[in-house]
Write a structure and sequence with these properties.
heterotrimer, A alpha/beta, B alpha/beta, C alpha+beta, A: alpha/beta, Aspartate Aminotransferase, domain 2, Aspartate Aminotransferase, domain 1, four-stranded antiparallel beta sheet, 13 helices, B: alpha/beta, 2 domains, seven-stranded mixed beta sheet, globular
Chain lengths: 522, 448, 125
């Protein structure tokens, strides 16, 4: 891109009436090319010494030709990524009420301790005698997770929630194997409101997923569940609090019925933040539950990862936890790796090394900062805030179910009926008000769903402003005079609505010198 | 309770607005038997930042940091210098505390760097299309086999004896529970394995690693041809991604799927995670890929922008028919990778790779000169296998007591196999110095 | 004049002699929204009535297409790879999915004619 030429027209097209600028920039909103359009041969942002001449031992496989990486100097790299960062919304900027994702405050002390020399720079295969502190740290987090959930064991290695689901469901398959019933028990029950990962996981393991209906209160229909249970059922996968933001009030009866039928209870722990410190899933009859450390325990979401998904296990499933196991022998910590004798029958290995240590460190720092008292208070504040939102918007938007809710408030789109404004339009208008939209169109069981999870991290003044903004939008939508405004939103974001159909019809998934839609258009 | 903004007054006002007397009433759906009256017993209360930091310093003090000891560890995780810019950039709140870019209008930052990341991966691997990252290399390898099974509608994977043993076990575990067979070669310490004869009409894919777990460099062009002739795919795993700055890339060897552990670029050792998996394939297999993909498009004003695309492959839409159950990727680790690789550029990346090879060559020559010690590799990048005159694990322990991290005994990853008991994997990156090699060589002389 | 029949899964089949052309109805494409990708069965594939044989995708949804009849696929609409939007603009014309050689013409009797299908769609509200 030649930036000395300025931009010619077109930038302020569409419905915008703002004047154009020479650069195409708009004050702090700076248009940024791709690194591949910025590079120049002869530029480099690192200074490395001349490699000493050695006898080459590459088996004749020296790479020929250019790789094609652009060359930039350090100030350019810093500016490039800084400018990109300024095109993102983030928890650090304001209310991020993305339901089911628990976008709570990410404390910086967590980042600091994760980077301490002796923690952040350890090699995973150092002799265990040189990593005693690291192993104890993992065990300490494991202790917290077991105690908070009231479960006897935890598998720490899964890399994310969905990976934890895979681990938990493999443990269930292993337990069924041991009982000689894996061939017979082929059905996994899951509510229609389940996260998509649940059926995806069960199907990958060869189970047939059978949906169980919800009752008019948004909970599992116990009678229907009992009717579905039988000698062919392996497990139920249930989120609790569920994806409608409601606690499954008949959970004890559900787990009893599941166990009486010889099946296991997999709990999707995505919504643990609502109950941590107040309810122990072990007391509800759960057999296994993954914990998304990036939700309940504030490890940063990082633009979509990395996560961590430790799985707590009941006594029935504990023997099947995958390698590695961290065990104490006398005064010393050790790692039982593949093939090592342990007090159980590990189901195998799911991930190299010992799990997401960097996430363990951050989560433990968060947990220690809060303590048992603070975690309980955080759960209460999260639930209080969601109910406050529900109460403050209940007259103008339409709650999907009667309250109280847990940590997230679910609305349907009936308040938008016949207004010409859709859930999507409503959400995009929130962007112009300075908010990240709520989760939309999930759970699938509610029409035009809007799932708002404020978390415990929002001050009441900010919550009130957020509520005010939503009330104003709902009023404008209902007034019928602002449909075009809604359809045109967002207007003030770095980009207007993007053409997702074009992206999917003609996928351009990498930069090439000639393939850009933009260049084609110019 | 420094993270909680609500005051007691706020809470009372909010309860009034809701119309309940206490927060307990909001938990009325919880069965009485499961309601805890007080906080969970047996756990400490909240602590200040100073106390928390002290606790972690105490954990750190009980570990030996590779930064303060000569270190020659590899085996799938490598110590490299990461420029300060990288860590600064990933700690910017706009990146750190954002989530999956479901709202593209306000997440162009994340989407654009992922588009740059995908492009970088295709360039490094010489493949046509790459996704927005996997959890790590090890789980990515398992996803590659599942993808090959989908494409070929077959269910037998051949795993090279040069594949990282933990990667192999993960694929075996997945195969055992998801119902495909994984046939593993014997540990290939000498780098002589030939899998061509083993490829048959049932084979969905062959999984090899380059450089191999034992450090050998191979050209898999012939194997790729044999795979394709039999209707199978070739999956090439790379655990040291910096090698691609010096070595012929898998895409030029005919690979169909390439999986790399990306940790070496931008990401610290971190005791094993989080890392970042790189995943690339051919255009024709694009729709069978797992994980998120970012694509280019335009907005309502015609300006270039980026969105998540082809998401009908994924679990949140396809549910039980999804290509994978994966939801999360390794976004922030991918950012670290992209920033570091951008800092390096063509010239820096190539020089870094040369430097690694040179340091490892230097180390190999010095180690090979020790009596009774032989280097098994004719070829290597920055890591090679050494045969010691006695079991490697106790030697490594003895040197660790002298604060020298000599390498990874192969028996740590392949336990119970006498044939590998004396083998030691040693790596040298650009961080290796003569001042570090001297005590290593002296220490080895002493304990052997 | 070819005979056109409809299924409750919103596929249409236009039969001319032994060969039927299959696609999705205008109602189905409207429900899907902008079609971005169609996966059609290869020529030569034997298919059974009710079998999932094709997939049609919009940005946010993927739907399986079930064959309304049994037989052997004789041609797939290769043009849809480049112009999946044909399914939206001409669902019963250029947007056809595949042609199948019917093995049992008797199966057609179980399908709806246009009037019956119209009534069926109206009943869906």
């Amino acid at each position: 891109m030649d930036r000395s030429q300025g931009r010619t027209g077109g930038i302020a097209s569409g419905t915008s009436t703002e004047p154009t600028t020479f650069t195409g920039n708009r004050a702090l909103q700076i248009e940024e090319p791709l690194i591949f359009e910025m590079g120049q041969p002869g530029r480099c942002a690192v200074d490395l010494p001349e490699p000493p001449k050695v006898k080459e031992r590459l088996n004749g496989l020296r790479r020929a030709g250019e790789i094609g990486l652009p060359g930039l100097a350090e100030p350019q790299v810093v500016q490039h990524y800084t400018r990109l960062s300024q095109k993102n919304y983030a928890i650090d900027m304001g209310v991020y009420p993305l339901g089911s994702c628990t976008m709570k405050h990410n404390p910086r002390i967590n980042e600091k301790v994760a980077r301490l020399p002796g923690i952040g720079d350890l090699h995973p295969l150092q002799p265990v005698s040189t990593v005693q502190g690291a192993l104890e740290l993992i065990d300490r987090l494991a202790h917290w997770l077991k105690t908070l959930t009231g479960m006897p064991a935890v598998a720490m290695s899964p890399a994310a929630g969905a990976h934890g689901e895979m681990c938990g469901m493999m443990a269930i398959a292993a337990a069924l194997d041991a009982r000689g019933e894996r061939v017979r028990r082929k059905i996994v029950l899951a509510p229609e409101s389940a996260h998509g990962t649940n059926p995806a996981t069960a199907a990958a393991l060869g189970f047939t997923v059978k949906p169980i209906p919800a009752n008019e209160r948004g909970r599992v229909d116990l009678a229907a569940l009992k009717a579905a249970l039988g000698p062919d059922v392996a497990a139920i996968m249930l989120t609790n609090p569920n994806t409608c933001g409601l606690f499954e009030s008949e959970i004890v009866e559900i787990s009893k019925a599941v166990h009486d039928a010889g099946a296991y209870f997999y709990c999707d722990g995505a919504n643990f933040n609502a109950i941590v410190g107040r309810v122990r899933p072990g007391d509800l009859g759960v057999d296994c539950m993954h914990i998304n450390l990036h939700k309940t325990f504030s490890t940063p979401h990082g633009g979509g990862g990395p996560g961590a998904g430790p799985v707590v296990l009941s006594a029935a499933l504990a023997p099947y936890a995958p390698y590695p196991w961290i065990v104490k022998q006398g005064d010393a910590w050790t790692v039982a790796e593949d093939g090592a004798a342990v007090d159980g029958k590990p189901l195998g290995r799911l991930k190299a090394f010992h799990g997401q240590m960097g996430m363990f460190t951050r989560a433990l720092a968060y947990i220690m900062s809060h303590g048992a008292d603070g975690l309980k208070q955080a759960a209460e504040d999260a639930v209080l805030s969601a109910n406050y939102v529900m109460a403050a918007l209940g007259d103008i938007m339409t709650p999907a179910f009667d309250g109280p809710c847990m940590h997230e408030a679910l609305f349907d789109d009936s308040f938008l009926k016949d207004t010409g404004v859709s859930t999507l339009d409503f959400a995009k208008a929130m962007i112009d008000e300075g908010y990240h939209p709520m989760t939309m169109y999930f759970p699938l069981v509610v029409h035009g769903a809007m799932l708002i999870e404020p978390t415990e991290s929002v001050a009441k003044e900010d919550l009130d402003q957020f509520i005010g903004a939503l009330r104003s939008l709902a009023e404008r939508a209902k007034s019928g005079t602002a449909v075009e405004d809604f359809k045109a939103a967002p207007r003030f974001a770095p980009r207007r609505r993007l053409d997702e159909t074009l992206a999917a019809r003609k996928p351009i998934l990498r930069w090439r010198p000639t393939n850009s839609f933009k260049q084609a258009a110019e | 309770m420094r993270y909680l903004p609500l005051t007691e007054v706020d809470r009372r006002d909010m309860l009034t607005k809701i119309g309940v007397r206490s927060v307990d009433e909001l938990f009325k759906d919880v069965p009485l038997s499961a309601r805890l009256g007080a906080k969970v017993a047996g756990l400490p209360d909240h602590q200040g930042e100073l106390e928390v930091e002290r606790a972690f310093q105490a954990y750190a003090a009980r570990n030996l940091s590779p930064a303060s000891a000569p270190s020659f560890l590899g085996a799938g995780a490598y110590r490299h210098h990461v420029p300060a810019t990288v860590d600064y950039m990933i700690q910017r709140g706009e990146f750190l505390t954002s989530y999956t870019p479901y709202q593209p209008e306000i997440t162009q930052g994340t989407l654009q760097y992922l588009f740059e990341f995908q492009t970088q991966i295709t360039l490094l691997t010489a493949m046509e299309v790459a996704n927005a990252s996997m959890y790590d290399g090890s789980t990515g390898a398992s996803e590659a086999v599942l993808m090959a099974n989908r494409i070929t509608r077959r269910s037998k994977a051949l795993l090279s004896g040069g594949l990282h043993p933990q990667y192999r076990r993960i694929i075996e575990t997945t195969g055992h529970w998801q119902g495909f067979s994984a046939v593993s070669g014997k540990p290939d310490a000498e780098g002589l394995e030939d899998l061509i004869a083993a490829v048959d009409k049932e084979t969905s894919c062959v999984v090899v690693q380059n450089p191999s777990f034992f450090g050998h460099l191979r050209d898999f062009g012939k194997l790729a041809e044999a795979c394709h002739a039999a209707g199978a795919l070739l999956v090439v795993v790379v655990t040291e991604v910096i090698s691609l700055g010096l070595i012929k890339p898998p895409g030029e060897m005919g690979a169909d799927i390439v999986v790399c552990e990306g940790q070496s670029i931008g990401n610290g050792l971190g005791f094993g995670g989080p890392y970042v998996g790189l995943f690339a394939t051919r255009d024709k297999y694009m729709r069978q890929m797992p994980g998120r993909l970012v694509g280019e498009t335009v907005d309502a004003d015609g300006k270039r922008g980026f969105v998540l695309t082809l998401s009908t492959r994924e679990q949140h839409i396809r549910r039980e028919k999804a290509t994978s159950n994966i939801c999360t990727n390794a976004g922030l680790c991918a950012l670290a990778f992209t920033v570091h690789l951008t800092l390096l550029g063509e010239a820096g990346f190539r020089r870094l790779a040369e430097l690694n090879h040179a340091k490892a060559s230097e180390l190999a020559d010095r180690v090979a000169a020790l009596p009774g010690v032989s280097v098994l590799n004719d070829s290597f990048f920055n890591e090679f296998t050494v045969r010691l005159p006695k079991p490697a694990a106790p030697v490594v322990e003895a040197l660790a007591a002298k604060r020298i991290l000599a390498g990874v005994p192969v028996s740590r990853l392949i336990p119970g196999d006498k044939s590998v008991e004396n083998l030691l994997l040693m790596a040298a990156t650009e961080t290796a110095t003569e001042q570090g090699m001297d005590p290593l060589i002296a220490g080895l002389k002493e304990v052997l | 004049m070819a005979e056109v029949k409809f299924s409750e899964e919103h596929e249409w089949i236009s039969v001319d002699g032994e060969v039927g052309t299959v696609g999705i109805t205008p109602y189905a494409q409207e429900q899907l929204g902008d079609v971005v990708f169609v996966d059609v069965p290869a020529a030569g594939r034997k298919i059974a009535k009710g079998e999932s044989v094709a997939v049609v995708e919009s940005v946010k949804a993927a739907s399986d297409i079930y064959s309304p009849v049994s037989g052997e696929v004789v041609e797939a609409n290769a043009a849809l790879a480049d112009t999946p939007g044909d399914v939206n603009t001409e669902p019963m014309g250029k947007g056809w999915f595949f042609k199948v050689k019917l093995s049992d013409k008797g199966e057609l009797a179980g399908l709806m004619d246009e009037a019956a299908y119209d009534t069926f769609v109206k009943g869906l509200g």
